[in-house]
């Protein structure tokens, strides 16, 4: 890939360890030796010391037939540091209460979103990509 950032020793110190470039991606290796990327370390939700991969929450919410899009993220919380929240675009009728109950059946309690933002569309970059941190920032102001 690269052997360093040009004229940026601080970025090099953060990104390289013993000659290895650390991308910030988080993954798991299954029993067959296949690597699956599950998220970005910077996007992890830290709820009271528990690390939550927002993609896991997304995937559960997307299983509901009334959910068209879902993006989970952390919101600041006074006691826990962060709390799980999600922005959701609906494609059918469902209440926030029912969506949370649906998630509660499929996720550990600490991973269940405590706040859902039902929106017409998920904020995206100019290229159409969802940037989880930008989504989180846009809902911290609401």
What does it look like?
- The mean pLDDT is 87.
- The chain has helices spanning 9-15, 54-62, 96-106, 132-140; strands at residues 16-17, 20-21, 25-29, 35-40, 45-47, 50-52, 67-77, 81-90, 115-119.
- It folds into two domains: 1-41, Roll (Luciferase, domain 3); 44-140, ANL, C-terminal domain (GMP Synthetase, Chain A, domain 3, 2-Layer Sandwich), CATH 3.30.300.30.
- It starts with 8 loop residues before the first helix and ends with a helix.
- The longest helix has 11 residues, at 96-106.
- With 142 residues, it is an alpha+beta fold.
- 25% of the residues lie in helices and 33% in strands.
- A three-stranded mixed β-sheet has the order 7-8-9, sandwiched between helices.
Question: What is the strand and helix layout of this fold?
Answer:
Layout: H1 9-15, E1 16-17, E2 20-21, E3 25-29, E4 35-40, E5 45-47, E6 50-52, H2 54-62, E7 67-77, E8 81-90, H3 96-106, E9 115-119, H4 132-140
Parallel strand pairs: 8-9
Antiparallel strand pairs: 1-2, 3-4, 5-6, 7-8
